[in-house]
Amino acid sequence: GKRTGRNRVIAFDPEMLTDVRHKRLIERELRAAIILDELDLHYQPVFAADGALSGHEALVRWQHKVRGTVPPSEFIHIAEESDLISRLGEWVLRRACLDIDALKAPRLSINVSAAQLRRGDFADRFAAIVAETGVDAQRLTVEITETVPLKAGGVEERNLSALRTLGVRVAIDDFGAGHASLEYLKKFSFDVLKIDRSYVANLAESPVDNVLIAAICEIGRVSGIEIVAEGVETGEQLDLLKAAGCTHFQGYLLGRPTPLARKSVPSQVRAA
Ligand code: C2E
Ligand code: MG
Ligand code: MG
Ligand code: MG
Fold this sequence. Notes:
This is EAL domain-containing protein. One of its GO terms (molecular function) is cyclic-guanylate-specific phosphodiesterase activity. The protein is of the alpha/beta class. The chain has helices spanning 2-11, 14-17, 19-35, 76-79, 84-103, 114-117, 122-133, 155-166, 181-187, 197-202, 207-223, 235-244, 267-271, and strands at 39-48, 53-64, 68-70, 107-111, 140-145, 169-175, 192-195, 226-229, 248-249, 258-259. An eight-stranded mixed barrel has the order 1-2-4-5-6-7-8-9, surrounded by four helices. Helix 3 (19-35) packs across helix 5 (84-103) and helix 5 (84-103) packs parallel to helix 7 (122-133). Residues 1-10 and 265-272 have low confidence and may be disordered. Bound molecules: ligand C2E and magnesium ion (3 copies). Residues 44, 59-60, 71-73, 76, 92, 111-113, 143, 173-174, 197, 231-233, 251-252, 257 line the site of ligand C2E. One magnesium ion (MG) binds next to strand 6.
């Protein structure tokens, strides 16, 4: 009948058939975008419990000529399939380092993907960009998710240890969103733990999430790990998070990711 016919059409969706070609296209365009400087960073503020601005998180955006602003969820996973993720990561680090003074906050975080950490030269290249831009490494934090394998003596662990030796802080991002989180915590010394926003979203309704966040904050207090709550959208969430012992907060309630207003060259000067 009609239904089966429709289903068959969906099963042979041309978009699925060209999935690989679509990926190749994005990859090619992204490679060009990095060279042409069509990427941009948006910065989202992070606040301490007393309301002081403690830093920002850099979040990459792609200003596509046709598609407009493309969010990272649409291209990071494609970049991760090749060396492109390292090129993108180095672009992000350099841009962030160049912007750090204009941001007027002590700290700046950047996201680093597992694919970047698998490269043996990651830490050396990171250090080179930090040196080249003259940034104090102690102001930088790298955020990694728990999908990063942290086998003792493995390349990822060696890269992160090298960064920590430079003074860069290491944050575990989206904590609680994956598996075996507590085990992961014990494997490596993190400086910062970011509670996944799914826990924050449920806070008002879920006594279990409340207790879990309080327990994570207690672990943080005992082991000297800074606890950042992600995705704070309401005043009620903020109050509950403070009561649970969180020390740092990030979310739309407090500030959205926004581009840095760069000093633009006046048009008269450009035209001259
Ligand atoms: P993330 O590192 O966990 O970043 C937080 C995400 O939550 C950002 O999405 C941010 O815009 C969003 N967000 C912040 N506050 C709120 C809130 O109150 N409510 C809600 N619903 N969302 C909020 P974005 O910018 O789309 O980034 C998504 C993910 O893409 C990031 O998650 C990170 O994993 C990855 N990403 C972003 N920039 C980079 C980058 O430069 N390099 C790499 N490797 N990954 C990046
Ligand atoms: Mg992050
Ligand atoms: Mg996160
Ligand atoms: Mg995330």
